[in-house]
Amino acid sequence: MAEDDTSIKVSRRTRERLARLAAERGTTLKDVVEELASATPTAAELAEREQRARAVLAEHFGAQVTDAELAASARLRAVIAGRRPAA
Fold first, then answer.
1. 83 neighbors 77 (Cβ within 8 angstroms)
2. How many CB atoms lie within 10 A of CB 32?
3. Which end of the chain is more exposed for a tag (fewer CB within 10 A), N or C?
4. Would 76 be classed as within a structural domain?
5. What is the pTM of this model?
6. Residue 86 covered by a domain
7. Is residue 34 situated within a structural domain?
8. Is the separation of the CB atoms in 71 and 60 below 8 Å?
9. Is the distance from CB of 10 to CB of 20 less than 8 angstroms?
10. Are residues 56 and 68 in the same domain?
11. Rounded CA gap, 83 and 77, in Å?
């Protein structure tokens, strides 16, 4: 184990699923977990992305996106994805 490596505990079912994903991708379980972690934005990263998008829309298109419009868009995405939208 490399000096900066650590271990995490997950259920057996989760570990088996991660192992299947790794095998299908021809990689290691460690690489799958690292890929998932790096590809999943944090709440702070999502908020920063939202602010950048709002700034681009305002600067280039003169569009001011409201919080209500963002909430409606999120609800629509949830419905399309087959999830129950947040109230």
1. no
2. 19
3. C
4. yes
5. 0.65
6. no
7. yes
8. no
9. no
10. yes
11. 9
